[in-house]
Design goal:
Chains: A mainly alpha, B mainly alpha, C mainly alpha
Strand content of chain B: under 5%
CATH architecture of chain B: Orthogonal Bundle
Oligomer: heterotrimer
Number of domains of chain A: 1
Number of strands of chain B: 0
Number of domains of chain B: 1
Largest interface: B-C, 84 and 92 residues
Number of strands of chain A: 0
Order of helices and strands of chain A: HHHHH
Helix content of chain B: 55-70%
Number of helices of chain B: 4
Largest sheet of chain A: none
CATH class of chain B: Mainly Alpha
Distance between the termini of chain B: 53 Å
Helix content of chain A: over 70%
Largest sheet of chain B: none
Distance between the termini of chain A: 36 Å
Number of helices of chain A: 5
Chain lengths: 150, 119, 181
């Protein structure tokens, strides 16, 4: 598909707007519809769009496998880390009001980091799912069929 | 039998549930089974969210000038349910791909016959 | 009048699903599934569930449809003709539907402000969440703060699904990479 001029140009024009929209949905989830899940899926969709037009190896060069796998884990660790920070600062697990002097500001801070963690994990997982499924199509063209039962 | 407009959303949800259940248990193709499961799950979203709506209300985002809001609690539960549903679907599809590579087919009866012949 | 669009969309959703059950070409089924997800997202907007609609549109019509297309490409696109008529499963499903219809009689009517769902916790969230958390979007406040444990569990579930798919689909790639020069 990378031979089609229109697709190439439109993909390169649209991708930054899609990513900015994903960030907007992530950080304005407090004031309108949105939040971590939607933002993660939109960000992953932007990279999937790029990979569909320019090919899976180009998509893999853009966001390497290691980075995606790191995103998966870092999101969950961030969420649990906010919980443990509440524990360390004197409250219970996942208490936000201890994160700052003013309890409402503590809530805002806790919600911000928690949604960031969720967005990271969801983006990583959606991108990884696409990469795994799409990468499978090329792999078993040459390999033996049905032999690998392990 | 309450067939009136007040219960229409429940009737549609029941129809979707029955259709999803039929696809799940009567079709032999593994992909169709998974799609039936997805439809069954999405019919439950209707059952939860429809009762929360108040006509004349608005989305549960506090804004000046609005007094009546729809109920936010089912939205939270269903948000989680949607994401868990896609996680389940992704794992099921990965299993279907592996089954296809191991058996050469995704029809349930052919797979069972191959298993019985292999014993 | 506001409820009319909900009823129309619900009817078209039912028609789409019945078409999906009867179709045998899997590509058509997957495309109809995408259309069904979009209609579900629109119904959710009409029901004032804007966060849920965004998630359903992104996840159901986006990710689910892409994954189904990828799996269909890898696994084959036509469903075989059923060996015998599916009367028993249909009767079973209709029996389940009948029991559900009987149970549904007791549920409150559409948009009834005295329904139990509007008592207890929900009015408290609506009245006090904006002041306690500083976040106007009540769904985000409840999801991230009041019910934070559930969201932690859900994030772990998504992570587990990603790890599971990696575990299922990774081995063949490595074998192919070792085999190819």
């Amino acid at each position: 598909m990378s031979n089609d001029l229109i697709l190439r140009v439109i993909a390169k024009l649209l991708m930054p707007y899609m990513l900015v929209f994903a960030l907007y949905v992530q950080f304005h989830g407090d004031f309108g519809p949105g939040g971590g899940f939607q933002a993660g899926v939109i960000a992953a969709a932007a990279v999937v769009f790029y990979a569909i037009i320019f090919g899976l190896p180009a998509g893999r060069r853009l966001v390497p496998d290691r980075v995606v796998e790191a995103m998966l884990a870092v999101g969950v660790l961030l969420y649990a880390g906010v919980g443990l920070a509440g524990l360390a600062l004197g409250g219970n697990f996942l208490d936000y009001f201890v994160l700052d002097g003013d309890p409402v500001k503590g809530q805002l801070r806790g919600i911000f980091w928690v949604e960031a963690g969720v967005g990271l994990t969801v983006a990583g997982v959606m991108l990884k799912l696409f990469t795994m499924f799409a990468g499978r199509a090329g792999a078993d063209r040459g390999a033996d069929k049905g032999g690998d039962r392990g | 039998m309450k067939l009136l407009a007040g219960h229409y959303s429940y009737w549609i949800a029941i129809l979707l549930m029955v259709a999803g259940l039929t696809m799940l248990i009567s079709r032999r193709n593994l992909l169709k089974k998974l799609i039936g499961l997805a439809i069954l799950q999405s019919s439950v979203y209707l059952v939860y969210i429809a009762p929360g709506k108040l006509i004349g209300g608005t989305a549960p985002i506090i804004a000046p000038g609005y007094t009546l809001y729809s109920n936010p609690l089912p939205h939270v539960l269903i948000l989680t349910a949607i994401v868990v549903g896609v996680a389940t679907l992704a794992l099921g599809l990965a299993l279907v791909v592996r089954i296809r590579e191991a058996y050469g087919s995704i029809e349930e009866d052919e797979i069972l016959a191959l298993d019985r012949a292999g014993e | 009048m506001g409820a009319l669009i909900i009823y129309v969309l619900l009817t078209t959703m039912a028609v789409t699903v019945v078409a999906m059950v009867l179709q045998r070409n899997l590509f058509s089924v997957v495309v109809l599934f995408g259309a069904y997800s979009f209609q579900m997202a629109t119904v959710l907007v009409a029901l004032d569930a804007v966060d849920v609609a965004m998630t359903e549109a992104a996840v159901g019509a986006g990710v689910s449809t892409v994954l189904l297309l990828a799996a269909m490409h890898l696994a084959g696109g036509i469903e075989a003709k059923p060996l015998h008529r599916p009367w028993l499963p249909l009767v079973l499903a209709l029996a389940v539907g009948g029991v559900l219809a009987y149970g549904m009689q007791g549920l409150p009517a559409f948009s009834d402000p005295r329904a139990p769902i509007h008592a207890h916790v929900a009015p408290r969230y609506l009245a006090e969440a904006a002041a306690e958390t500083g976040v106007p979007n009540i769904v985000t406040a409840v999801l991230a703060s009041y019910r934070g444990f559930d969201t932690l569990g859900e994030t772990v579930v998504v992570f587990t699904a990603g790890v599971g798919v990696i575990a299922l689909l990774r081995r063949r790639r490595k074998a192919a990479k070792d085999a190819a020069p």
